[in-house]
Amino acid sequence: MKLSSKNLEPFWHGLFWVLLFGLTLGLSRTILPARLAFIIGISRLGILMLVVYGHAFLLAPFVFPPKKKIIVYLVGTVSLCALSIFLLDIVFQMGHEARRLAFERGQIKFPFPNLPRGGPPRYFPHIFLTILSILISAAYVLAKTVVQKERQKEVLRVEKSEYELNFLRSQINPHFLFNALNNLHAIFMIYPEKGEKYLLKLSEMLRYVLEECKQPRVSLKKEMQYLHNYIFFQQAKEHESKKINFQVEGRGINEVSIEPMLLIVLLENAFQHSYSPDDHEQFICIKVEVNEDVFRFQVRNNIPLQQAHAPQETLVHHGIGLQNVKRRLELNYPQSHTLNHGPKGNEYIAEITINRSFL
Question: CB under 8 Å to 66, separation ≥6 — which residues?
Fold first, then answer.
């Protein structure tokens, strides 16, 4: 079982009281026989524990919302302090009497100092120990409250991230199905005799989306196979075939797992924004690179002739798909990824890089 700070809390409490008891026992042992020192030490420790935990668990909750019963808290704290001082004084008298008897019997060599038996001076140590216990208890409650609030914030943050991520993933399936059906319709119109072959490909792609993509991570190899199937569909329906170059570099392809359906958006954009009936130099270059440090996925495509002289800022893609990818990267790989896209010369380049240690 994995130990958390909550599991270890009783251990730290026990260690604190054992150390405190050891310290007080060591001091008492110099003026009392061992058996009496142990009894006095246990008694004093029990009273301090009563103050610390009584204040922490019974009284402190009255000053936090939704109760906020300040009067009840103050009355309870004063009563607890009075009880503590009373009990500590009884232990003090027991220790005083025990030491006197031990001295008379020759069990100890040093007589009890001539301290006042009554009046305020006798209660000063009890008051000090009681106030110190209240302060320790208050510090414990405040620290625990801060930690609990931070834990609640973290739980809410994780739940919100998971909800948002599930919502973003839910946008993928309708988008994929819409595109796939459009592609299949176009293929049946162009190559009706090959419809069965493409239908099987579509079935394979749907199986991947509906089954594999339920997992938080999928193997890069399967994701790449999905990209190949998508390219197969696109090439079948394009009026002017594009030059497609799919390049893979690195030996860790089978060892990498990524967020499902993360890469397809860049490829979809490349097909969507590179087509031009007047442009015979249409191309898409896909490069997958895996090395010891990073995973890199880059897609380059031609900019159509009619857009070649348009202002650079108008060529940058800002569709819902890219916003989806950006947010999913932020949720899955915080501060360990980059997403860059934009025109460069007569090409449009989109690139995702992810720190390899997060894959």
Answer: none
Q: What is the pLDDT of residues 125-164, one digit of tens each?
A: 778 888 888 888 888 888 888 888 788 777 657 666 665 6
Spatial distance between the Cα atoms of 277 and 225, rounded to a whole number of angstroms: 29
Name which of 217, 308, 312, 227 is nearest 266 in CA terms.
Answer: 227
Cα separations (Å) of 224 from 186, 229, 246? 24, 9, 10
Distance CA 81, CA 55 (A): 10
Q: Name the residue with tokens 């599991």.
A: 7
Tell me the pTM. 0.55
Torsion region of 316: left, alpha or beta (phi above 0 gives left; psi -120 to 50 gives alpha): beta
Give 290-308 pLDDT, tens digit per residue: 988 899 999 999 888 766 5
Which residues are registered as beta bridge partners of 349?
A: 300, 342
CA distance linking residue 103 with residue 111, whole number of Å: 6
